[in-house]
Amino acid sequence: MTGVPASAAGGPTGAQGAPGPAAADGDTSEVSGSASGPSTAHEGGGKPARGGKIAAAAVNQASVWNVANLLTMLRLVLVPGFVALMLADGGHDPAWRSLAWASFAVAMITDLFDGHLARTYDLVTDFGKIADPIADKAIMGAALVCLSALEDLPWWVTAVILGRELGITLLRFLVIRYGVIPASRGGKLKTLTQGVAVGMYVLPLTGWLASLRFWVMAAAVVLTVVTGLDYVRQAIVLRRQGIAERAAALEEKEA
Prior knowledge:
The protein is mostly helical. The protein has helices at 52-62, 67-87, 94-120, 126-149, 155-174, 185-202, 208-254; strands at residues 13-19, 29-35, 42-43, 47-48. The protein has a two-stranded antiparallel ribbon.
């Protein structure tokens, strides 16, 4: 989710935004910077400076290690640690479950911050576009599978949520040639509700809180299904529009 900040180039910069495949119920745009000094942009005869391409490549390579991508990497590293904490001592020890919840909460918070940082400071990279949705689905998938394996959550709930996430991701890539399905408020609400519900199930809650988490998870499942169907509808409309536009363009070209 990262690119090159303006200050990294060491000179005047220009940025261009290009749409990329959306991930995790949203779309991102890649912003790349290009730099040239007043006396190093060209050497005599209009030839590019010998070290220009090497310097640009070095800047782009270093940009992968910015703060937004580091947060994404942290989320990936937290996944195996979270699983170990969830399954420690049989998976039902309150202390271990509390630590597992803490790691899950950190992962969810970093998901909010890395996206904000990437959009605010133009830190979007190809690595971030790929790693961010993988990290999101990895931590959520690990939590759901662990909860179902420990019989704290029915397997059908895990199947519905993970099936929807994987299906919509695949659908986005299938229709990317026609355009990008924009993020929706329903999708963002679904993500928030899922995070809260799963977090409540990870915690060893009792009494009315244990009853409340059932209803929060029920709301998450409903939002998961409803928003999934809405994305399917949007994909069908987007595909039809794309086919119609291509047909019109072809007819105009032949005419």
